[in-house]
Amino acid sequence: MTVLKNDRLIRALFREKVDRTPIWIMRQAGRYLPEYKAIRQRAGTFMDLVQNPELATEVTLQPVDRFNLDAAILFSDILTIPHAMGLGLEFMAGEGPVFAKPIRSARDVAQLPTLDPARELNYVLDTVSLIQKELSGRVPLIGFAGSPWTLACYMVEGSGSKEFSMIRAMRYQDPALLEQLLAKLIQATIEYLNAQIAAGVNAVMIFDTWGGLLTPEDYLKFSLNPMQQIISKLNLNHNIPVTLFTKNGGQHLEAMADSGAHGLGIDWMTSLSDAKQRVGHKVALQGNLDPAALYGSAESVEQATRAILNVYGSDPGHIFNLGHGIYPNIDPEQVAILVETVHNFRIN
């Protein structure tokens, strides 16, 4: 594995001392950058871009080149697994992801194929290899996957939703079927993330976008437990740290900290000082600026950023990030102010 010239992110995730707080931004590669929009228009569909290793590599590197961030994150999508399972994924303008063949029955679940990432997801692995060649150890590369619960939400609903009522109905009408679906997604995600690790990523993250929809008991059973199973089967013998992020998951931090993850993503609806007090001695914490703060003035962005840095203080284990993905109409100059503020902040 390539020796990293900047390993702040890795050291922070292992709660080691760093000279300054590392920063990267969820969805940093993409829709708010003019250079991304130019490539996106040239590529055709969104999935055409994701499946083109050369273009996906270029998009991955754009924010690192522009902002001197402390990590690159693989340009891909959490729905690559269900796409590879043949559900007919398309990204519709103004609607987001739509599946032509959603999961609605026991037969649908039984027909889901066993994935071989080297075959069905080879374009992702080729992208990882190409990114690492281009980075040459400049910063770590983060690989990722969606949580089984979050993938199941889209696969059963057939598209995005505010309530995901169809999978929540399945939970009560046929919980055994839901568990069968999750079991298939657990195994597929283990294989997928291990393939990314073998291809060369330096860290992995599991995005649990919709775990916050569940009751506390169901979160532990249907969301956190599958993620724990994945972590326990990852090939982490090359000092590969794992970060979990559950949006609206602040009430579950103690349980998440016992999952085997090295870091937890914190959204802006959870107090960072509260999170640190509750679990900061066990895991690193990533976050948690409100993405909407980037709509403010330069002065307000600086103030909000410094406030979070001061709240965490000089203890090890903080990675600065937004509390969720960057919004598509954010001015890149605001991001530059954010990154510069973090870079200039010194840990006492």
The shape is globular
SSE run: HHHHEHEEHHHEHHHEHEHEHEHEH
The chain-level mean pLDDT equals: 96
| Approximate helicity band | 40-55%
Could you tell me the radius of gyration in angstroms?
Answer: 19 Å
Largest sheet: 7 strands, parallel
Q: How far is it from the N-terminal to the C-terminal residue, by CA? A: 32 Å
Structural class: alpha/beta
- What low-confidence regions span 5 or more consecutive residues with pLDDT below 50? none
Q: Brief description of this entry?
A:
The chain is an alpha/beta fold and 348 residues long.
Walk me through what this model shows:
The protein is α/β, with parallel strands linked by helices and about 350 residues long. It contains 16 helices and 9 strands. It has helices at about 10-15, 35-45, 45-50, 55-65, 80-85, 105-110, 115-120, 120-135, 150-155, 165-175, 175-200, 215-230, 255, 270-280, 300-310, 330-345, and strands at about 70-75, 90, 95-100, 140-145, 205-210, 240-245, 265, 285, 320. A 7-stranded parallel beta sheet has the order 1-4-5-6-7-8-9. Strands 2-3 form a two-stranded antiparallel ribbon. Strand 8, helix 15 (about 300-310) and strand 9 form a beta-alpha-beta unit. Helix 11 runs parallel beside helix 12 and helix 15 packs parallel to helix 16 (about 330-345). The radius of gyration is 19 Å and the shape is globular. The chain starts with 7 loop residues before the first helix and ends with a helix. The model has no long low-confidence stretch (mean pLDDT about 95).
